[in-house]
Write a structure and sequence with these properties.
By secondary structure, the protein is an alpha/beta fold. The protein has 2 domains: 84 residues, DNA polymerase, domain 1 (Orthogonal Bundle); 228 residues, Rossmann fold, CATH 3.40.50.150. 44% of the residues lie in helices and 19% in strands. It has 11 helices and 10 strands. The chain starts with a helix and ends with a helix. Bound molecules: S-adenosylmethionine. The site of S-adenosylmethionine (SAM) has 21 residues, from helix 6 and strand 2.
């Protein structure tokens, strides 16, 4: 039986991670970062391994030559092994952005950002899955990308993910709500971490700090992202559907009115989520600048289940029509 390239890569990533996990007595995700680094460097970097395990790893690594795999095959295989590792233990807020969402964000970036060469930021880059899904869809573009992530192991995985796919991503391991030393970007994409931000002192730097108690980290992320976007740049956030229903929503509305133009909201299919309260949307905005064309009306789309080809076709036509009437005329 012929196995697919993704299966072939998955097997090598998975089996070599298991060997390293056992010998290094670490978590599966840490072992995956180690094996990814070995594959990228084409060498076995862990000095403490037994001879037998070195042989086993070498044999497995020789079975794959990354040049023969597409970036998407590498991304998908890496994503599947991470998902396996995340089953061991992962907080809900650390979850990787699923493929379907990444594909839609990638499609939107391609529709909205017309420059041939641009800078993109993901301030909650996690494993880099969303960022590289988006990058892999921007054909014939020259893109500089920046990713920021607070979690040490996730950023290591993002680093290896980007290296294996040959995407030169500039990565920072820090709290994105602390000052950022990056040049302004043309686009931001982010699957926002939702919840309270524990650092009340830092939150006082933000217009969107809570009047009382902890601030919402997703609100502060939006403000920080807008700050680092060039005038006229676009922002694509994955947000909870209830974003505008919280007690802090009036402040958020006011901030958005001052700084951005809402371009659209794409509600993701409910079937993708455990329940209605967990459902999310993609929020598309543009940072204000002189001479920006304001859409006659925002693009409002309720995505059908992505397997419904007929409905999907209708929606894609509706989106094209909106672009013709609001952006291209
Ligand atoms: N798009 C990512 C991917 O494909 O793997 C997943 C994003 S996940 C929903 C949100 C991420 O935000 C988590 O990886 C979490 O560690 C990170 N995060 C939470 N608070 C942060 C902060 N203050 N600064 C930087 N990253 C943060």
């Amino acid at each position: 039986m012929k196995i697919s390239p993704v299966e072939q890569l998955f097997t090598v990533f998975n089996e070599t991670s298991l060997v390293l996990q056992e010998e290094l007595e670490c978590t599966f995700l840490e072992a995956l970062a180690e094996t990814g680094e070995n594959i990228f460097q084409q060498s076995i970097l862990q000095e403490e391994l037994s001879e037998l395990n070195v042989k086993r790893l070498k044999k497995q690594y020789e079975e794959i030559n990354l040049d023969k795999f597409s970036k998407e095959d590498i991304r998908k295989a890496f994503q599947l092994v991470i998902l396996k590792g995340m089953k061991e233990s992962v907080q809900p807020n650390h979850q990787m952005t699923p493929d379907t969402v990444g594909m839609l964000v990638g499609y939107l970036v391609q529709k909205f950002v017309k420059e041939k060469s641009f800078r993109i930021l993901d301030p909650a880059v996690g494993t880099g899955n969303l960022l590289t899904t988006v990058l892999n869809q921007q054909l014939d573009k020259s893109i500089e990308s920046v990713g920021i992530e607070i979690d040490d192991i996730l950023i290591r995985l993002a680093f290896i993910n980007a290296n294996l796919q040959e995407h030169p991503v500039e990565l920072f391991n820090q709290d994105s709500l602390e000052p950022l030393f990056i040049d302004p970007v043309d686009a931001v994409i982010s699957d926002l971490p939702i919840g309270y931000y524990p650092n009340d002192l830092r939150a006082t730097d933000y217009q969107l700090k809570a009047i009382e108690g902890h601030s919402y980290s997703h609100h502060l992320f939006i403000e920080q992202s807008v700050k680092h976007t060039k005038p006229g740049g676009y922002l694509f956030f994955i947000i909870p559907n209830g974003l505008f229903e919280s007690e802090q929503a009036p402040q958020l509305r006011e901030f958005l009115k001052q700084h951005i133009i809402v371009q659209g909201i794409m509600q993701l299919p409910l079937t993708m989520f455990k329940n209605k309260n967990a459902a999310k949307s993609i929020f598309i905005m543009q940072k204000k600048a002189d001479h920006i064309k304001i859409p006659k009306q925002a693009l409002l789309v309720d995505m059908p289940s992505l397997s419904n080809a007929y409905e999907m076709d209708n929606i894609l036509r509706k989106i094209d029509k909106w672009f013709l009437e609001n952006k291209e005329s």
